[in-house]
Amino acid sequence: KQEVTQIPAALSVPEGENLVLNCSFTDSAIYNLQWFRQDPGKGLTSLLLIQSSQREQTSGRLNASLDKSSGRSTLYIAASQPGDSATYLCAALGGANNLFFGTGTRLTVIP
Amino acid sequence: NAGVTQTPKFQVLKTGQSMTLQCAQDMNHEYMSWYRQDPGMGLRLIHYSVGAGITDQGEVPNGYNVSRSTTEDFPLRLLSAAPSQTSVYFCASSYFRGGGNEQFFGPGTRLTVL
């Protein structure tokens, strides 16, 4: 069974700092890796999707990388802003199109 | 294009009551699924469907039923609610053919069972 782990569970940084969120998975046979953002009491917003054949994807200040052989993905956030404060979830897509989620990293960006 | 919609947003039930959580999507997606989110455990798959008339169990299916009579709708039924089913429920959808498709989530239903 696929196990997805996110470290750290919580992170607090001053505004303007660059930061990296980590995601690891145990089974490298994935179709893609998807990063989501979740605000308190809200649903999941898709941020980036990396196909299994890709190494990275970029959207604005966000960059996600994928290394299937080592079972790792990272989400890089440049020049963090208070509006980036949220919980970030990674999910690996396995067989039957089902997602396996990590427990998330709760990010706080301090003004 | 409304995306994935869920109703109700909040619900309080008493132990033993039944109810149906509604999920609909207007993107003509073949794949639909239900997850529950509990503190410290991440999202876990309850049931999923790859097309009308086809459903299958996920990681935590006990106590829940689903059916898929149309492409657009995928309701989740709680037959006899238990306090352990207190959770936030999310519905998701995506294209299925070709693999590796981005999944889209609804806003969630927050359920409390007393």
**Ends of chain B: how far apart?**
36 Å
Radius of gyration of chain B: 13 Å
Which class of secondary structure composition applies to the elements of chain B?
mainly beta
What oligomeric state is this?
heterodimer
* SSE ordering of chain A: EEEEEEEEEEE
**What composes the largest sheet of chain A?**
6 strands, mixed
Global shape of chain B = globular
Largest interface: A-B, 24 and 27 residues
- Low-confidence blocks of residues of chain A: none
Structure classification of chain A: mainly beta
Q: For the CA atoms, what is the radius of gyration of chain A?
A: 13 Å
**Strand tally of chain B, please?**
11
Number of helices of chain A: 0
Topology of helices and strands:
The complex is a heterodimer of chains A (111) and B (114).
Chain A: E1 4-7, E2 10-14, E3 19-25, E4 32-38, E5 44-51, E6 56-59, E7 62-67, E8 72-77, E9 86-93, E10 99-101, E11 105-110
Parallel strand pairs in A: 2-11
Antiparallel strand pairs in A: 1-3, 3-8, 4-5, 4-9, 6-7, 7-8, 9-10, 9-11
Chain B: E1 4-7, E2 10-13, E3 19-25, E4 31-38, E5 42-51, E6 54-57, E7 64-66, E8 76-78, E9 87-94, E10 104-105, E11 109-113
Parallel strand pairs in B: 2-11
Antiparallel strand pairs in B: 1-3, 3-8, 4-5, 4-9, 5-6, 7-8, 9-10, 9-11
Short description:
The complex is a heterodimer of chains A (111) and B (114). Chain A is mostly beta strands and 111 residues long.
Structure write-up:
The complex is a heterodimer of chains A (111) and B (114). With 111 residues, chain A is mainly beta. Chain A is 0% helix and 58% strand. Chain A contains no helices and 11 strands. In chain A, strands 2, 4, 5, 9, 10 and 11 form a 6-stranded mixed beta sheet that branches. In chain A, strands 1-3-8-7-6 form a 5-stranded antiparallel beta sheet, with no helix packed on it. In chain A, a hairpin with a 4-residue loop joins strand 7 (62-67) and strand 8 (72-77). In chain A, 39% of the residues are buried. Chain B starts with a strand and ends with a strand. By secondary structure, chain B is mainly β. Chain B is 0% helix and 51% strand. Chains A and B meet through strand 4, strand 5 and strand 9 of A and strand 4, strand 5, strand 9 and strand 10 of B.
